[in-house]
Write a structure and sequence with these properties.
Helix content is 44%, strand content 13%. It has a nine-stranded parallel β-sheet, with helices on one face.
Length: 312
């Protein structure tokens, strides 16, 4: 895990900010959002998922996505939830699909099942090894990477395709340029948009956005936002995906392990301010990693000016 010391405060600037307009004042709600869920393991978790969907649906998301476990470990549950979302809600549903531990024919068959079930949007990812520790190795006879997967999906049907992007470089990439080259290959293969891994500093995203543009990537790049449910859990996830946790963040969550309500307030504040600064930098699309909990994402959207749509 990489941490960075906080920048020294400018007292004049901080005073001007404190006495100026509220950080979220006057926002017109001209943003578009999407939400990510994971397939539930139990009936109780399924109830929580659908309560979250019902809470977030009135915000009129562009789409909601359902994740896919390493090695296809949640394949059936992912399919079940995506199809149900598509059938029982007015929200476009997207299914995650990976290359891991499957032949091309097996992956294509899953994609055909989605198409036949009315699913028109795939989140296409290379995926991670099921053990979480070893280096990724393509399956014999399988798609070697996300770019190959996208090309294969386009053979199955004209899917809308979202892909992953790493503002702080994918852990398996040799360097920053190799990572950008890989992202460009995914767009060249037919990706519609890229959704970033979570990050905590707005400049991290802005630098990545500028580098992508300089590399000739002109597709949509959507910032992925992770409201912190548990600081310890986020530390683990950040270590796996190479996300830097700012030095100031640990102090804000210190002492809140047994105070979940207070922890949620802190989490919403941090994520909302990140989004507000991204908004000030021109971003109008946001993708929220909900962890199947709605209230934090709903609160952040509300602070950004988004209100329930009348049609919903």
């Amino acid at each position: 895990m990489t941490t960075r010391a906080p920048a020294p405060l400018d007292p004049v600037h901080e005073t001007d900010t404190a006495h100026g307009d509220p950080l979220f004042s006057g926002l017109p709600g001209d943003i578009e959002v999407s939400f990510e869920f994971f397939p539930p393991k139990t009936e109780k978790m399924a109830q929580t998922l659908w309560e979250s969907v019902e809470t977030l649906a009135p915000l009129g998301p562009r789409f909601v996505s359902v994740t896919y476990g390493a090695g296809g470990s949640t394949r059936e549950r992912t399919h079940e939830q995506v199809v149900r979302l598509n059938r029982e809600t007015a929200i476009p549903a997207a299914a995650h699909l990976t290359c891991v531990e499957a032949t091309r024919e097996e992956v294509d068959e899953v994609a055909r099942h989605y198409w036949e079930s009315g699913i028109r949007h795939i989140v296409a990812l290379r995926g991670d090894p099921p053990d979480g520790g070893s280096r990724y190795t393509p399956h014999p006879g399988g798609y070697a990477n996300a770019a190959e997967l996208i090309a294969g999906l386009k053979e199955v049907g004209p899917f809308e395709i979202s892909v992953g992007a790493y503002p702080e470089v994918h852990p398996d990439s040799a360097d920053e340029q190799a990572d950008l080259d890989n992202l460009k290959r995914k767009f060249d293969a037919g990706a519609t948009r890229a959704i970033t891994q979570f990050f905590f500093e707005p400049d991290c995203f802005f630098r990545f956005r500028d580098r992508a543009a300089a590399a000739g990537i002109d597709g949509e790049i959507v910032p992925g936002i992770m409201p912190v449910m548990s600081f310890a859990a986020v530390e683990r996830m950040a270590g796996l995906c190479g996300t830097a946790i700012p030095g100031w963040m640990a102090g804000l969550f210190d002492g809140l392990d047994e105070r979940p309500a207070a922890r949620q307030l802190v989490s919403a504040t941090i994520a909302a301010e990140l989004c507000r600064r991204l908004y000030a930098g021109g971003e109008r699309q946001f993708h929220f990693y909900t962890l199947n909990r709605a209230e934090l994402s709903y609160a952040i959207c509300h602070m950004l000016g988004l209100r329930p749509k009348e049609a919903a």
